[in-house]
Design brief:
With about 500 residues, the chain is of the alpha/beta class. The chain has helices at about 5-30, 35-55, 60-80, 90-115, 130-135, 140-170, 180-205, 210-230, 240-260, 265-285, 290-295, 315-325, 335-340, 345-355, 375-385, 395, 420, 470-485, and strands at about 330-335, 360-365, 390, 405-410, 440-445, 465-470. Helix 1 packs antiparallel against helix 2 and helix 7 (about 180-205) packs antiparallel against helix 8.
């Protein structure tokens, strides 16, 4: 089909509109009040960019592209509808990995196309661009070639690293895997991969078997490095890791956009890369750690942890309800356990009963609570909690000393005072919610197990803490019944 000559201008115009929608949508996502509309705007921009791409002059393989889009949309819609909120971090990691893998695949194809002599492509190959020979005759510039290599490297690392993060979050593998000299092994893999790329660039990749081997080795080592880099990272660092790989995927897409000279890919990749980078920095700051320490260091000290004195003291739901019913101020601190129990709706119902009794209620959110950034905010928004009742760590910490009762449900490491008091603790130095300074603390917990970081929580043994054992949703329901019983 022959398209009018002005179609390229139309495509560029739609790409510009899509870019505006990307940026506007991202801005709207910065506030919980407008985040949903922001996602819709950004999604509309992406849909427009995809649709208009089919109008690019000289585009081939439209059938396979359409099939891939239909299959991808159907699968993502089905998965998105079926995945529980507790598994949302895994889904984000998996989908992000697919984006990184796609960017790496684009870069690999461009490198192969740069010199068709790498492989024998039959003239009858079904997916064969009509302009293949012409494109091969005009090789990539040095900058485009370098960006293609960078896109493959970063995209491959994001792909395999995100898959490992997914496996850890899903519980399919240990949260942390270490072995002697691991850092040196990882460094060696990275250096060799980069060396393969540099030698291939210098050699000009003239189609020799050696150059072909360098290219294949580079791609394989990049994939291996993503695995090796993610294996030693502990579960407590997963919010940072997910944000970082999100930034990696964006950068890889942007680099390949430059190679393909596709404005939509460049802008979308840069926006995702910038947003992911900023979010990674915020997550690392919330844990009081540098990104280098997350990737290559140990979380906290490495000595013997302090012994925790005292014992956990249980409380009945009815007594806990009475304590909060007659309190002046109550803070509710949710964590991943609330997500597992799907207790956010019951907790909000309980909070509304307290508010009706004149109790001042706030929800305290730690930046890395849950398994991904914003996890708790999404859960509370799903339950209908008003945004003005949700306070972040920096705002709520000065108020804890004046709060009568803090209700902790499912949170563990983010309220552990050992992060401040024990230099040998694996979470030492991480900013926490100062729940221990409240007058009274009630912790809803299934049992006496440890948190995601695998350490004991000194808060649970404190004199002002009482443990309400049981499933989060069941315990919240018992608290509701306890409040209603007070009113006759």
């Amino acid at each position: 089909m022959t398209l009018p000559s002005y179609m390229s201008t139309v495509v560029d115009a739609v790409y510009f509109i899509a870019a505006v929608l990307f940026i506007w949508g991202l801005k709207r996502m910065s506030s919980p009040r407008t985040a949903r509309r922001g996602i819709v705007w950004a999604g509309a921009g992406m849909a427009a960019a995809i649709m208009v791409t089919f109008l690019l002059p000289g585009l081939n393989n439209l059938g396979p592209m359409a099939i891939a889009i239909v299959v991808g949309v159907a699968l993502s819609w089905w998965v998105g509808r079926r995945v529980a909120m507790t598994a949302m971090p895994q889904m984000v990691a998996l989908f992000n990995g697919m984006g990184g893998g796609a960017a790496a695949a684009i870069g690999a194809v461009e490198l192969i196309r740069f010199n068709r002599a790498f492989i024998a492509i039959p003239d009858t190959y079904p997916i064969r661009p009509e302009a293949w020979a012409a494109q091969t005759a005009v090789p990539l510039s040095a900058v485009e070639l370098a960006l293609a290599f960078l896109g493959v490297l970063i995209g491959a690392v994001s792909f395999t690293g995100s898959l490992i993060a997914f496996a850890k979050l899903q519980g399919w593998m240990d949260r942390r895997f270490v072995f002697p000299l691991q850092r040196f092994v990882n460094l060696a893999i990275f250096v060799i991969a980069v060396a393969c790329a540099i030698i291939a660039l210098i050699a000009g990749i003239e189609g020799h078997a050696f150059a072909w081997s360098l290219l294949i080795g580079f791609i394989l080592l990049a994939l291996v490095f993503g695995i090796a880099m993610t294996l030693p990272i502990g579960g407590a660092d997963m919010p940072v890791v997910i944000s970082m790989y999100n930034a990696f995927t964006g950068l890889a897409v942007a680099f390949e956009g430059f190679v393909l000279q596709n404005e939509a890919m460049i802008i979308a990749g840069m926006v995702v890369g910038a947003a992911g980078t900023l979010l990674t920095q915020l997550m690392a700051k919330a844990m009081n750690r540098s990104l280098a320490n997350v990737l290559f260091g140990n979380f906290g000290g490495g000595g013997e942890a302090q012994e925790i004195a005292g014992a956990m003291k249980p409380i009945d739901a009815s007594d806990a309800a009475v304590m909060m019913a007659y309190a002046e101020r109550v803070a509710i601190v949710p964590g991943y356990g609330m997500a597992v129990a799907q207790a956010q709706h019951k907790i909000w119902e309980f909070a509304k009963l307290l508010i009706d009794r004149g109790v001042k209620v706030k929800f305290a959110i730690h930046p890395v609570a849950g398994r991904m950034p914003g996890h708790m905010n999404v859960l509370l928004a799903e339950a209908g909690v008003p945004y003005d009742l949700i306070a972040d760590m920096d705002d709520i910490n000065p108020e804890f000393s004046n709060i009568d009762v803090a209700l902790v449900i499912g949170a563990n490491d983010v309220v552990n005072p050992m992060a401040k008091t024990d230099p040998n603790s694996p979470i030492y130095g991480m900013p926490i919610l100062d729940v221990a300074s409240c007058k009274n603390v009630i912790v809803i917990k299934r049992g006496k197990g440890k948190g995601f970081a695998g350490i004991e929580n000194a808060l649970f043994y404190a004199d002002n803490t009482r443990m309400l054992y049981g499933d989060g949703q069941a315990a919240a329901n018992e608290l509701i019944q306890g409040l209603k019983a007070l009113d006759g």
